[in-house]
Amino acid sequence: MKAVYLAGIGAVAMAGLIAACAPETQVTTGRSDYMNLCVDCHGPTGKGDGPAAAGMEPRPTDITRVARNNDGVFPKNRVMSHIYGYTMGRSESPMPQFGDLLEGRTVLYDTGDGIETPTPWRLVALMEYVEGMQE
Ligand code: HEC
Question: Counting atoms of ligand 1 from 1, which one is nearest the CA of 38?
Answer without folding.
Answer: 37
